[in-house]
Design a protein that fits this description.
The structure holds 2 protein chains of 2 kinds. Chain A is of the alpha/beta class. Chain A has 7 helices and 19 strands. Chain A folds into 2 domains: 181 residues, FAD/NAD(P)-binding domain (3-Layer(bba) Sandwich); 153 residues, FAD/NAD(P)-binding domain (3-Layer(bba) Sandwich). In chain A, helix 1 packs parallel to helix 2 and helix 4 packs parallel to helix 5. The longest helix of chain A is centred in the C-terminal third of the chain and has 21 residues. The termini of chain A are close together. The relative contact order of chain A is 0.18. Chain B has 12 helices and 1 strand, in the order H-E-H-H-H-H-H-H-H-H-H-H-H. The radius of gyration of chain B is 20 Å and the shape is elongated. Chain B is mainly α. Classes of the chains: A alpha/beta, B mainly alpha. Strand 15 of chain A pairs parallel with strand 1 of chain B, so a sheet runs across the interface. The structure holds flavin-adenine dinucleotide and iron/sulfur cluster (3 copies). One iron/sulfur cluster (SF4) binds next to strand 10 and helix 4 of chain A.
């Protein structure tokens, strides 16, 4: 055994990875965060507002970054990726690559926290994503919201339609699973749209709304009842450009009647899919993945994916920022327990 | 019972009106946006089996502002105001109150009721209350049967009830009928057309 201090490697500096880093670092072990982007924070950096408390997601990112900077045991490498790894008994020899340098490090445990990507909605020709203007996926729409925030009402869209379950709950072109968070962020986005432009009409096309967390049901109801977002039960069938608008056709399945909406903007709640690189990394560290490419959990140890390999956040499955933090903390607890026993 | 051709036209939901919803919020103190679309009202409605449009769908129609359809529907006249739906509704949506409001609206706008003699019954009943301060059942039944040309309807039962002391053939006036009449003056009956 050498005198090197025990080190945990965290791959991915989103909210899950940051939480794991903070807990392990504050417990007295060394942490190395490897983040491919030029900043920490992951998807939260892109969000305009967050459910279920209408908070600014940037505040959460800033809080974590501050804690990381304060903890001398945590080292962060931005613009960096893992290129290869080799297991050597109780350690891993890992090669890192950034624009400027290639580096080799030795670590004692790994936490995968590579997050998610959005399903490519262009497979649905009927929705026109990538073909028609003003059809966005929900992550892109967060950017739109940021851009709209300072503008005059007259410059904002007057009719916005949100399609849920795009690529989720679809065994033909997408995935059979439910992406879990889109019901909530769609309610949030429609609510924000109404706040920015109270004259706008917002329609949410839904099959169900799934609001299964603390304060979630109340959140969705408040969007319907207080912000007057109109929920229409049915999955839109097609979108066609018509006189500068996007004409949506669907069935209101509660009434059994065909309905149409002429929208200025359409937002597709695309399925949450694992980050493309997750599979490669999982293989490098001999972690299990499921049929979709998410990291597979062990029923008896839900944040463990292999020997000395843990995971947290959306690389395991769609999760909101609260759950991602829970998982980051749980992974940290496992790492600390392991290091204490070594 | 409704015309399917009329029912299946494409509805432009971005062009529907909210005014009925707002009216109902104001007059019936019921916010239909709170409806969870669960169908508990329809499932337990004591008369749903004869409703052309069941309670949950009525709420949906209000949402899309289909006032004309609501004023014409038969359910307006087959709801018996039993209160089961509102009692069971998880959002306390007061459907009988909405029915009352819509019935009144239909009457004022002279939208004919789908059931025969409904207006006649309504007028005789209010007339009886105005005159006697209460419903004079026997007199009103006779008046109703004559005016609706059902001369012998209820006669046999009426006689039986009289001999059992269940029916007073003479109308009795309440003590302070002036008070009731004042109420009527305060809310004058309005009817268009
Ligand atoms: C449209 C939308 C709206 C949302 N709104 C909300 C909301 O209002 N409230 C809420 O609680 N949640 C919301 N979420 C969910 C929230 O974004 C996630 O819970 C959160 O981002 C998950 O964090 P994470 O760390 O697991 O993943 P991510 O945020 O995806 O972070 C993963 C990080 O890993 C990095 N990474 C990936 N691959 C590698 C690699 N190979 N090497 C190095 N680094 C890598 C990425 O660059 C990224 O920084 C929303 C999600 C979407 C899509
Ligand atoms: S969370 Fe909601 S929108 Fe997303 S897949 Fe599930 S049901 Fe559909
Ligand atoms: S019971 Fe209440 S909440 Fe349910 S459908 Fe009827 S009115 Fe709506
Ligand atoms: S009040 Fe009317 S709508 Fe409600 S349960 Fe009774 S009959 Fe049905």
């Amino acid at each position: 055994m050498n005198n090197r201090k025990k080190t945990a490697l965290i791959i991915g500096g989103g909210v899950a990875g940051m939480e794991a880093a903070i807990k392990i670092g504050n417990a007295g072990y060394q942490v190395l965060i490897v983040e491919k982007e030029p900043q920490l924070g992951g998807a939260l950096n892109k969000l305009y507002s967050s459910f279920p408390r209408w908070e600014n997601p940037q505040d959460l990112v800033d809080d974590k970054v501050k804690k990381i900077e304060k903890c001398s045991a945590i080292k962060t490498m931005l613009n960096t990726v893992v290129t290869s790894a080799e297991r050597k008994e109780k350690t891993f020899i890992v090669n890192l690559d950034s624009a400027s340098v290639s580096e080799q490090v030795e670590v004692d445990a790994v936490v995968l926290a590579t997050g998610f990507e959005m399903f490519d909605a262009s497979v649905y020709g009927e929705y026109g994503y990538g073909a028609f203007e003003n059809v966005y996926n929900s992550l892109e729409f967060e950017d739109q919201l940021k851009a709209m925030a300072g503008k005059d009402k007259s410059e904002l869209p007057q009719v916005v339609a949100f399609f849920k379950c795009v690529g989720s709950r679809d065994r033909s072109k997408g995935f059979p699973y439910c992406s879990k968070i889109c019901c909530m962020y769609t309610a949030k986005q429609a609510g924000v749209m109404k706040d920015l432009n109270p004259d706008a009409k917002c329609f949410v096309f839904y099959m169900d709304y799934r609001a299964t967390g603390k304060e979630y049901e109340e959140f969705v109801r408040s969007v319907i009842e207080e912000k007057h977002v109109r929920y229409v039960r049915g999955r839109p069938a097609k979108v066609l450009p018509e006189n500068g608008k996007l004409m949506i056709r669907a069935e209101d399945t509660l009434m059994g009647v065909p309905v149409e909406v002429a929208a200025d903007m359409i937002v597709l709640a695309s399925a949450i899919v694992p980050n493309a690189k997750t599979g490669e990394l999982a293989e490098m560290f001999a972690a299990k993945t499921d049929q979709y490419g998410f990291i597979e959990y062990d029923s008896k140890n839900p944040v463990q994916a292999g020997e000395r390999v843990f995971f947290a956040g959306a690389c395991g499955f769609a999760v909101e920022s609260l759950g991602a933090q829970h998982q980051g903390a749980a992974a940290a607890a496992d790492v600390v327990a392991l290091f204490n026993q070594d | 019972m409704h015309n399917t051709a009329d029912f299946y036209h494409v509805l432009r939901i971005d062009q529907t009106s909210n005014s009925l919803r707002e009216e109902i919020k104001e007059h019936c103190h019921t916010d239909i946006e709170m409806c969870l679309e669960c169908g508990k009202c329809s499932g337990g409605c004591s008369n749903a089996h004869i409703f052309d449009i069941t309670p949950r769908k009525i709420i949906q129609l209000i949402k899309i502002g289909e006032e004309a359809k609501l004023l014409k529907m038969d359910a307006l006249w087959s709801c018996v105001a039993c209160q089961l739906c509102v009692d069971r509704c998880p959002s306390s949506i007061n459907i009988p109150k909405i029915m009352d409001y819509m019935r009144e609206k239909a009457y004022k706008q002279c939208v004919p009721a789908t059931r025969p003699n409904v207006e006649l019954f309504h007028e005789l009943m209010l007339g009886s209350i105005k005159q006697y301060g209460r419903v004079a059942e026997a007199l009103m039944t006779v008046q109703f049967n004559i005016k609706s040309k059902q001369y012998t309807k209820d006669a046999e039962m009426g006689i039986k009830m009289f001999f059992k002391g269940k029916l007073n053939p003479l109308p009795s006036r309440i003590k302070n009928v002036q008070q009731v009449r004042r109420m009527f003056r305060n809310i004058p009956a309005q009817r268009e057309g």
